[in-house]
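Recap from last week: sequence in, structure out.
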Amino acid sequence: MTTAQVTSSPVAVGATPPVSGPWWRYGHVWMVIGGPLVVVVASFVTLWLAVSTPDPVYTEADLQARDAARSLATDKVGHPLAPAMQARNHAATGVVPQAPAHAETESHPTPQH
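Predicted structure tokens:
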């Protein structure tokens, strides 16, 4: 047995080994590079959004105006969470709360026949 026959290489004697192409020709390389690259680009977009549109600074007058507008809206329609509270209570007790009689006639007038 000669030394050429004893090699453990799967390549036949006299054949050239397979040539590997450049790294950018393989799709899985771009998948490995692309994931982190997308995250880096998204972080720069997020940074740009944060720097270009700062949050407004509210003063005490702004908060008082907001509270006054909420209280006016609450006076017109009642408590703003009333339907949610009624639904929660209905689910817990099984009793449907009755609306006041004047509220039904104001919101849904009866048609004239």
